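Researcher: Here's the sequence for the chain we discussed earlier.
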Amino acid sequence: MNREVVTMNNTQDAACLGAAIMAGYGYGAWNSMEEAALRFSEIDRVYKPNPANRQVYDLLLNKWDVLINALAGSTEELARLL
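Model: Thanks. This is the structure I predict for it:
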C-alpha cells in the first residue's frame, strides 16, 4: 500500500475527544471539524514504508486478506454465543 502510518498520542481518550470536537463544531467554536481535530491531535510517531520490504508487505497483506475472507460471518456468530 506504500503509505505512512501515523500513531497518535492520547488515544485512550479518542472517543471522548471526538465527541467534544463534534459538539464544539456544532456549537460554532471552530470553523471546521478539521480545524478542531488539528488543534487537539498530537502525533506520536510516523512510520515510513521501507521500499526494500515491499515484497514482504504485499505478501503479508495478501495473507491478511485471506484470513479476513475466511472469517467472514464468524465474528457475528461468535458474538451471539456471548
